[in-house]
Design goal:
The chain is mostly helical.
Length: about 450
């Protein structure tokens, strides 16, 4: 009896934070700030990547390493994110991630060694990785009736951050091709200021989430009494399809985030227009973040939506192939922005994949487990993609073959989009494999 009493007390302690209510306004602000920090430290690197490599006397192949680090960190940290949340609580793990992000961003611009730069980049994106996996589960636990609203906010401000990331390169640009030293910045290079600006935003996140951890305590939810808890998530066909869908779109998203400006410049597009095109692609994610979560919440069957978005993605790559083949001088000035438009709309696959994590699960625990399964494996693909692109670009000196391969990945994305759009719940699929005879969950 004593053992049972101690076990129950332990469970009460573990779920004490879950009983503390998060006010609607606080939840909105917390999600906005966290989502806003999920992309700028990555997307701000692309426009100044050549400057970074030149300043540190690094080879172009290390540019591929820089763009691959986010996906690699998301994979490695994603594998342990749920375990960290069980130990510290959801809010605690997110607060620790905010500390890691701030430290990486605050120190990274001022180092002169490329390997130290890579280490600090890895630290910052490891902090982002915790939020990638755990923030949807946090919304599921603390969102109450506002889960859909918070997911809209999450997806939208994630895209805002991704779109604003390259903007700092324009904001601090001066002199020839943006490489001049800013006199008003006390001799600091433009690329340093462009990267350092986002440490301020990360500090805001830290200041907000650390006190919230003290308030909420340990808020990892208790597991429901269901045999599906003991069934590996990968036994769900929908979960496996969601992994591939998420991974392929992430690989393309991080390729565009890291390499689109350089690819356009190499095709004859001006540096400023290439930066604007990159911002346009990332900024269109705001529209996707506003549209996709409500659409998923209200619509049962999304197969043709997921498949159609992927085909729009494919059309964008076809225009990029034409641009690469003929050169910017042989095409209208708006051609690059049209390609960016199609790539940006195709990028709606990302908010769709994120919104499907809580939408395709009924329990809070399974939401965290699914997120911890989908995102690490998916981001492994996003790590390999940009790295291999960097290697291939250095070896081929031609973007055409690379773009044809990426075009092929969007066709696979279309097939997976059709599968994940079916009207089913992963809880039901796992319950079937656990031998339970429970009712089928649907999106009704």
């Amino acid at each position: 009896m004593a053992e049972v009493r101690e076990e129950n007390q332990g469970r009460d302690h573990e779920n004490r934070g879950a009983a503390v209510k998060v006010g609607g306004t606080l939840a909105v602000i917390a999600v906005i700030v966290a989502a806003l920090n999920l992309r700028p430290s990555i997307s701000s690197v692309g426009p100044v990547l050549d400057d970074i490599l030149a300043a540190m006397d690094a080879s172009p192949s290390l540019g591929g390493v820089i763009t691959a680090l986010p996906g690699l960190a998301f994979f490695l940290v994603g594998l342990v994110a749920v375990a960290v949340a069980k130990r510290l609580g959801l809010t605690g793990a997110l607060a620790v991630g905010a500390v890691m992000l701030f430290m990486g961003l605050a120190i990274r611009p001022w180092v002169s060694n490329i390997w130290l730069f890579l280490l600090l980049t890895l630290l910052s994106v490891a902090g982002i990785a915790l939020a990638n996996v755990l923030l949807p589960a946090w919304v599921k636990v603390h969102g109450g009736r506002n889960v859909v609203t918070l997911m809209v906010i999450y997806s939208s401000f994630l895209a805002v951050g991704g779109g604003l990331g390259p903007a700092t390169a324009l904001l601090f640009q001066s002199g020839e091709q943006g490489n001049a030293v800013s006199a008003s910045g006390g001799g600091m290079a433009m690329w340093q200021l462009a990267l350092a600006a986002w440490a301020v935003v990360a500090l805001v996140q830290l200041v907000l989430w650390a006190p919230m951890w003290a308030k909420l305590g340990h808020d990892y939810p208790a597991a429901p009494p269901s045999g599906s808890v003991n069934v590996p998530v990968w036994k769900s066909p929908t979960a496996v399809a969601l992994v591939v869908f998420f991974g392929v779109q992430s690989m393309n998203a991080y390729f565009l985030m890291g390499w689109l400006p350089k690819m356009l410049i190499d095709s004859g597009v001006s540096a400023s227009l290439a930066t604007w095109a990159s911002m346009f692609v990332q900024g269109l994610g705001i529209v996707g973040g506003l549209v996709m979560p409500p659409l998923i919440a209200r619509t049962k069957r999304l197969s043709f939506v997921g498949s159609g978005l992927a085909l729009i993605f494919a059309a964008g790559y076809l225009l990029m192939i034409l641009l690469c083949h003929r050169g910017a001088d042989a095409l209208p000035g708006w051609f690059a922005m049209l390609a960016a438009l199609l790539l940006g709309v195709g990028g709606f696959c990302f908010p769709m994949a994120i919104a499907l994590i809580p939408a395709r699960t009924a329990s809070h625990v399974l939401t965290a487990r699914l997120s911890g399964f989908v995102q690490p494996v998916g981001y492994l693909l996003s790590a390999l993609g940009p790295f291999l692109v960097g290697v291939a670009a250095g070896a081929l000196h031609n973007w055409g073959p690379i773009l044809w391969v990426l075009f092929g990945t969007t066709l696979l994305l279309s097939v997976m989009g059709f599968i994940v759009g079916r009207d089913t719940m992963i809880d039901f699929e796992l319950q079937e494999r656990s031998g339970e005879k429970l009712r089928r969950y649907t999106l009704d």
